[in-house]
Design goal:
CATH class of the domain at 3-94: Mainly Alpha
Protein name: MerR family transcriptional regulator
Organism: Streptomyces achromogenes
Number of strands: 0
Radius of gyration: 21 Å
CATH topology of the domain at 3-94: Multidrug-efflux Transporter Regulator, Chain: A, Domain 2
CATH architecture of the domain at 3-94: Orthogonal Bundle
InterPro entries: DNA-bd_dom_put_sf, MerR-type_HTH_dom, MerR_fam
Order of helices and strands: HHHHHHH
Shape: elongated
Domain HTH merR-type: 1-69
Oligomer: single chain
Keywords: DNA-binding
Length: 139
């Protein structure tokens, strides 16, 4: 399957596939006689894993350190939360350290954004003279 078809099959662009290959997340796929990338079922399975992990909030840099293990997730997917297999725990293929670092980075970013929001809210309140009721932040 050519790069455009492979990209469409996993919900991304050909440019993203080339980027994953350049960054070491995806081994270079076999080439046709004319030199075009030829993606097969194994490559598509790894691409789906990459896309799913990125959608969960991991970064390309997070995945670079475990790129060699990504094909394992394609063969043995991580069980979904709430299933008996997921409840057993364990470090998983991606690795606890990678996930813990990403969670810490997200917590730091949430704290930064919370301070920014609170500062903006305080500035707006001061500009209004503090006489308007504050909107609830509960959603």
């Amino acid at each position: 399957m050519r790069i455009g078809d492979a990209a469409a099959a996993v919900g991304t662009t050909p440019r993203a596939l080339r980027f994953y290959e350049q960054r070491g997340l995806l081994p270079p796929p076999p080439r046709t006689r004319s030199g075009q990338r030829d993606y097969g079922p194994r490559e598509l399975a790894v691409l789906r894993v990459i896309r799913e992990l990125l959608a969960l909030g991991l970064t390309v840099e997070d995945l670079r350190g475990v790129a060699g293990r990504l094909p394992l997730l394609a063969v043995h997917p991580v069980p979904r939360c709430g299933t008996a297999a997921a409840d057993r725990g364990g470090p998983g293929v991606v690795g606890e350290a990678v996930v813990e670092r990403r969670i810490a980075a997200l917590d730091t970013e949430i704290e930064r954004l919370t301070r920014l929001r609170d500062g903006l809210r305080a500035g707006l309140s001061a500009q209004r003279g503090g006489d308007r009721p504050r909107r609830s932040t509960a959603r």
